[in-house]
Amino acid sequence: MKTLKNFPYKHVLVVGLAKSGTAAAHLLLDSEINVRINDLKADKESEEVQKLIEKGAEVITGGHPLEALEGIELIVKNPGIPYENPLIAEAVKREVPVVTEVELAGRLHDGPLIAITGSNGKTTTTTLIHEIIKADDQPVSVAGNIGKVACEVARSTSDEEAMVVEMSSFQLLGTETFKPDVAVLLNLYEAHLDYHGTLEAYHNAKAKIIENQTSEDTFVYNADDEKIMSYLPGTKSKQVPFTLNQQGSGAWTDKEWIYFNEEAIMKKSEIVLVGEQNLQNILAALAVVKTIGISNEAIHQVLTTFAGVKHRLEYVQEKNGRFFYNDSKATNILATSYALRSFQQPIILLAGGLDRGNSFEGLAPYLSNVKAMIVFGETADLLKETGTSVGIKDIINVETMDKAVTEAYRLSNQNDVVLLSPACASWDQYRTFEERGNMFTEAVHKLK
């Protein structure tokens, strides 16, 4: 297992354990760095914490005392902890650097580093890139916001192995020297304003993915996104676009084929993934893998078989001529609008969840193909208002996912799509969007 070499900090505070903090603490301790850990709720007697103490970590629980900053040169922060946290705010005031564990991963990994960010489509694009490289029999690992802690994965990668990392704005904000060989910026929309404060701050956090790139590196970007285009003049890296609306450069498409530069790669009709959003994700992945020299055979193999990432416009099954899709990851209006535009058939939409104070008027233009709505959770009434405003007559408010699926099936006909795409976070009724999606899938399988 690799450790950090020539690391410039000797006294590090890890704030927040969970998966990322635990992995970072183990890496730092194994690298012979003095580690103090501060976690609000961690149990000092737990096996996980005891292992860290046995390695030499000092552990502070039950609060975030400012005394924890004494002698500290660097903070490695759990991405979810806001900068308004009094301990973090004081560290920033004292000019103590605050990073996330991906900063450690970047310092540790010596092979090709491919990093993907954007408001939507990160997991699908990351997975596609990983699967295509793997299909070409090249060494590759996947990490980051996709579920595997980057600094933990980086400890076992070889010098020849590519590491494909999905990155959130929370993670990117906590980077200093992080520099991907290939950076991908998929799109920029409004999200996470409760964390970043302003839209500009959120977008600038995303743009940190290209901040340290040089002329030896590559920036794969969405040429259809005006905000992303505004960052191009400040980039030093080689620019490779992907686009649905232009032709001739980078990854692009016409009515029949997808291309890289002037080379026709494959027919769109052969691609398994549905939807315009997924076509953008495919073109982004294509731009990356062609840039690093992956074969067309590997691209074709994956795109003709890859049916999607779980909970992201995931095809569940066909039942008596009805087609069920799980898009539980659609936690905002934008993601649900993409899902709705992915189908030509009539749709029964299952939507609702945590009320964050926003209206759903922005969803109205995309409901023209929706024949019925099943609404639930805190936003049920708001979604019903929006559906009623565009003339949808069948709108049913339910309490459980089982009931939602049963009612959706009752209202459906052959060739209809039953789509779970909530447009809301899940936390009013479920612990995670994954739990919500799994309950949908289970309910579909139970249908008679």
Any overview of this molecule?
The chain has 448 residues and is α/β, with parallel strands linked by helices. It folds into three domains: 11-99, 3-Layer(aba) Sandwich (Rossmann fold), CATH 3.40.50; 102-303, Mur-like, catalytic domain (UDP-N-acetylmuramoyl-L-alanine:D-glutamate ligase, 3-Layer(aba) Sandwich), CATH 3.40.1190.10; 314-446, Mur ligase, C-terminal domain (Protein-Tyrosine Phosphatase, Chain A). It contains 16 helices and 20 strands. A six-stranded parallel beta sheet has the order 7-8-6-9-10-11. Strands 15-16-20-17-18-19 form a six-stranded mixed beta sheet, with helices on both faces. Strands 3-2-1-4-5 form a five-stranded parallel beta sheet. The termini are far apart. The model has no long low-confidence stretch (mean pLDDT 94). Pathway: Cell wall biogenesis; peptidoglycan biosynthesis. GO terms for molecular function: ATP binding; UDP-N-acetylmuramoylalanine-D-glutamate ligase activity. It is an enzyme of class 6 (ligase).
The proportion of residues forming helix, as a percent range, comes to 25-40%
The major sheet is characterized as:
6 strands, parallel
CATH fold descriptor of the largest domain: UDP-N-acetylmuramoyl-L-alanine:D-glutamate ligase
* Spatial strand arrangement across the major sheet: 7-8-6-9-10-11
Number of helices: 16
Structurally, the number of domains stands at 3
Radius of gyration: 23 Å
- What is the mean pLDDT? 94
- At the fourth CATH level, what is the homologous superfamily of the largest domain? Mur-like, catalytic domain
Q: What would CATH call the architecture of the largest domain?
A: 3-Layer(aba) Sandwich
Beta strand %: 15-25%
Q: In terms of per-residue confidence, which ranges show pLDDT below 50 for 5 or more consecutive residues?
A: none
Oligomer: single chain
Report the CATH C-level class of the largest domain.
Answer: Alpha Beta
